[in-house]
Amino acid sequence: MQETEFIWFNGKLIKWKDAKIHVLTHSLHYGGGAFEGIRVYKTKKGSVVFRLKEHIKRFFNSAESLDMKVFFSQEEIINAIKETVRVNKLKEGYIRPIIFHGYGKMGLDPTGCEVNVVIAVWPWPAYIGESAKVKTSSFIRIHPKSLKADKKICGHYVNSILGSLEAKKQGFDESLFLDYEGNVAEGPGENIFMIKDGKIKTPKLKGQILPGITRDSIIKVTKDLGYEVEEEDITLDELKTADELFFVGTAAEVTPISQLDDVFFKEGKIAERIRKKFLEIVHYEDEKYSDWLDFI
Ligand SMILES: Cc1ncc(COP(=O)(O)O)c(C=O)c1O
């Protein structure tokens, strides 16, 4: 990880090395925190944050799903993010806001625990690489009746960690989760799309997957490019008959899948077109989508 100079901690900018917490921090023990992953891109007119308002809305929704009281408004967090990017002179990279229960109370009920908000930023190039070799996980995606699976909560990511460890041990780059009904869910930090006979499909939102902001952007962009996009249940067998497959997410951006278990895929023309368009949009080379960009 490449360090930057400052971290925003409950309203104050402090040195990166001083951004420390106590070992009895509530969220460290029980996973009750909410976070976001956001990207800042360099463009010819300065740096921009991609879909900042949507990320912050989801950030607050996730925190509220755990009854966490955030003592900052969404606007204050948006401004704090821009300030943190600016003071660190970060032109392009990753933004990680997190809300967590702090020190002072143990026991599972967090009521009354202090709530902390932190924003860190650092340079972080493409997360997976040019393409991904993917393994269907033996773990299923978290059950929506055990956890609020459509929220971005720290503890949910143990599921993602298990999937990632398993995939890496077997020589793959990334895992793919099915849901409890056996349908395709998502990757540990990505949503998935398939293309078959020119039609694009992605698993529908029904509380089982994270409503990805990149997923939402890709649906809009592919429709604008003239393709049909369907959000519906997809089985693993159907996924394996696709002509093209790709993951999308803030960290992964648009990453073609070259292998799923023992089936191989090429980056086809459609996925390539979508990937190019996405990169044009985030780099402000297509002004039609400028509403999605917040200048620093
Ligand atoms: C489980 C999961 N699915 C999908 C995504 C993609 O979401 P987004 O495009 O909002 O980054 C992420 C990343 O945040 C994730 O953690």
Overview of this structure, please?
With 296 residues, the protein is an alpha+beta fold. It is built from seven helices and 17 strands. Strands 8, 9, 10, 11, 12, 13, 14, 15 and 16 form a nine-stranded mixed beta sheet that branches. Strands 1, 2, 3, 4, 5, 6, 7 and 17 form an eight-stranded antiparallel beta sheet that branches. Strand 14 and strand 15 form a beta hairpin. The mean pLDDT is 96. It binds pyridoxal-5'-phosphate. The site of pyridoxal-5'-phosphate (PLP) has 12 residues, from helix 5.
Concise overview:
The protein is an alpha+beta fold. The protein contains 7 helices and 17 strands. The longest helix has 14 residues, at 74-87.
